[in-house]
Amino acid sequence: MSRSRRPAAALAEARHDAAGCRRCDLWENATQVVFGEGTTRARAVLVGEQPGDVEDEEGRPFVGPAGLLLRRVLEEVGLDERDLYLTNAVKHFKWRPKGTRRIHDTPNWTEIRACDVWLRLELAEVAPDLVVCLGATATHALLGRGAKVTALRGRVLDTPELEQPVIVTLHPSAVLRAGDRRHERRAELAHDLALLKTTLDELRSRSVATAARG
What we know:
By secondary structure, this protein is an alpha/beta fold.
């Protein structure tokens, strides 16, 4: 793909433009747009659902309880965040009130599609080696409404929807909500992120070998 601008500049412009996005109604009750974060040279893009309450306040992805769990597991399996770009399928926090609290509400298909332009731009500018879908919303956004996490997780997939291979796994919030099965769900998430690490290492080795032969 040819680029008329450097990816960092293109993403900075997109972040600025997204701040005024009115493509759906979620902006009305959100504090701010939460755009992706990470290097434009990222080897993998991890896509979640939407910012949560903490992310909405701080303006950064994956800094709430689920995000902190994700970052711990990434570290445990040996993935360096400097090699990753973290973002969400939906850039505004969708919530409903419960007393004084703001409770997460799942984005609908119209809202997912409205935000697709920003997600596709991020993927195009970062151009990673792999994409990771964290949970159902990200999976639907990138692989279609009929895609199911339970049927797809745990392996590297080549799909017609994406230029890059994709790994589907649980959203870390699903681990936190798993109750007595939290340990099991956490192990599944760790397994899939370890698969990401192994696959990236294999791709790097092939690239080095190809360069050496050339």
